[in-house]
Amino acid sequence: MATDRTATATAEALGVIRLLASEIGPRRPCSAAERRAGEALSSHLRERGLDPHLEEHRGYSTFAAPYGLLFGVALAGGLLQRRAPRAGGAIAAIASLLAALEGDLRLTPVSRLLSRRPTANLVASIGPTATPRQRVCLVGHMDSTRYGLLFHPAAVRHLELLTAIPGASALALAAHPLLRRLPGGGGVVRRAALAGLAFSLLVLAERELRGDDVPGASDNASGTAVAMQLAAECAARPLAHTRVDLLITTCEESGLLGAQAYARGPRERIDGTLFLNFDTVGGDVPLTYIEREGTTVPRSASSRLVAHLEQIAGDRPELGLQPAPGTPGLPTDATVMMARGEEAVTLLAQGDSVPHYHQMTDTYENVHPPTVERTLETGRELLTRLDREVSAAT
To answer: Alpha carbon 101 to chain centroid distance?
Structure first.
């Protein structure tokens, strides 16, 4: 499948992956390494003819910050219920509501309150050769995550269930003042909910206290590299009627904070924009496009983008592109845009599982170059078709 052009493009992308995962290493949100990554990527883009800049926002280093706080409050409310059922239920209800808002991603008051540390998204824009008719934003995230037993290969297969336990438990405690009127007084439900919250808090604590920051080669140096390479190609050969933006976020792994900060920015770069998100595209597994994302409220990917990807899959079987009903269990930067009513889709490499997902083995040496190449070609093909479509409409 590779031509000289695609081989060169893949080599460029692999160089960015090596820079992030091997030379810089783990890039925890809001860390000095994350900042170095942003500066290094900016220099790389300037060498490729773009004019990037770092856009400041504030964040925190781990998703345990808001959820540990909220589920700890819910647990305290549940324990209080033996002496003060209504007060304990109210506390649990407030914590449950705030956790639901965090997961919904439209309003995230706790995240806004906790975001105190400086960080910066990397952004750039490439204008078309003729009148702009549409805007496409290529998205990846530069930060990496932290390993913990929550992401052990045996646990990852049940990640969706594990992440649902604390929210369901907090909700059950909030409903206990009603449940206690039923035969049996809801005691079994309350004890199960308390156990569920205690278990979830222990899992979060284990990750923070015993876990290690991972190199993040596939997740998500690979997605960052693909988005940057496609942007560089557009800078060298601009599309006819499509403005192409580049957004490399920070703090994705701590709560999608970079994408949220970008979404709060100027409306002209958000409203009506098509967001194409690349996340974890370095594994030796099929390349998929995600049909639904989100936790509190699952949301559908853009029907327009999905229709194009379906056509690409049919026309280009060598790409091995196929649909997937969801992510391994967590939302992505695209979920933030979907929550605000914008059109978005995520490309993610996954089979029965995601190789090296949030593991210490997520290294440059374990990246599968053919998958990176297929992702580049899929993104290139999608951009071409979108521009051709809007050009024909004018």
So the answer is: 17
Same domain, 316 and 332: yes
Question: What's the pLDDT band for 6 if we cut at 50, 70, 90?
Answer: confident
Q: How far apart are the first and last CA of the chain?
A: 33
For residue 138, is it within any domain? yes
Q: Which domain holds residue 125?
A: 4-60+118-146+213-393
Does residue 220 sit within a domain? yes
Residue 113 belongs to some domain of the structure: no
Cβ atoms 258, 319 nearer than 8 A: no
Nearest to 289 by CA among 329, 239, 334, 349: 349
pLDDT in tens, 9-25: 999 999 999 999 999 99
pLDDT digit string, tens, across residues 100-109: 999 999 999 9
One-character DSSP codes across 276-336: EEE-S--SSS-EEEESEE-SSS-EEPPHHHHHHHHHHHHH-GGG-EEEES--SSS--HHHH
Q: Of 210, 234, 260, which residue sits at a domain end?
A: 210
Tokens of 83: 């002496």
Which residues are 349's β-sheet partners? 287
251-284 pLDDT tens trace: 999 999 999 999 999 999 999 999 999 999 999 9
Count how many domains the chain has.
Answer: 2
Q: Say yes or no: 124 and 157 in one domain.
A: no
Cα 212–14–49 angle (5° rounding)? Answer: 115
Whether this model's pTM surpasses 0.70: yes
Q: By the 8 A CB rule, do 144 and 220 touch?
A: yes
